[in-house]
Protein: Transposase family protein
Amino acid sequence: MTKKWARAALSHPAFTGVSRAHLGGLIEELAGPWQARRESALHQRRGGKRHRAAGAGRKHELVFTDRVLVAPVHLRTQLPHAALAELYGVGRSTVTEAIGEIRPLLADRGFAVPDQPGLRLRTLADVFAYADAEGVTLRIDGTETQVRRPKAHQPGRCAFVSGKKKQNTMKTTTISDGQGRTLWSGADRPGRMHDQTAMRTEGIAEQFRLHPDVRAEVDEGYRGLANEFPEQVSAPPKKPKEDAPLGDHYAWRAQRRRQSSARICVEHANAEHKQWRPLQRFLGRREHYPATHRAVAGLVSDRAAQRPTRRKPSTELVPVSLITC
Structure:
């Protein structure tokens, strides 16, 4: 298969997870940062002195367009590097180098903002500033992905063992809006760490103090935050005692159902991420997982941000004089 046919086949949305128009936009967006990183690496390698004219020297076996293309294909399908190299007729190391260059660029793009093209959220502070300005109620939830087990007799080997999954996992926190559109994904930590601890190390408590008007819906794993910020963080109600009146149990179930319905959208956001194979079971090196998850979440947020915002119908009472028969 020639490179032309490989490019035509792999650019299909079934392989990349994005439309061809979106892929073309990515190529234009990443061209500048890729060239800047390449020049910076060459500058450090040659000690600040240029020995050849710009554009001279060894040419890439994969042009920049193909380098951008193989990265989302690998992120979507987790095809082995050797298989992608066979399609292009190049060595496996060439594909590995290309993915290693493009993956951090995709991870650094940030997350798209609904109804505000061009604006992207990159840090937790950006998310809280956006939620404060737009009056968005945040939905926060953690998710786990199975990763390779560390080698025996290494320090910190047990840190990846998840008590919930009973597997070696990495844990990531996702923040979405009320329609399940990803606003941020990060706080990547070993699977043994508690959800709340992972977010506290990212400084979420300080953000709640800086933005007292921001509200959030969380699950039972963030009970401590709900206790510390009762006016801002809503967690599921505590279960009544067994000997409590039957009405208390009915009220608890109804309240828990309402709270679950309010935060189920962040579960849908995590489900969108899990459609990409590396986030179902990550087969690469663990140190590449955070960049992989951010890259996937950023691409998913581009598509999710295009969904129109659903406005809740007005609940104001209509005067009787305006009602016509």
Remarks:
- Residues 111-304 form one domain.
- The first helix runs from residue 3 to 10.
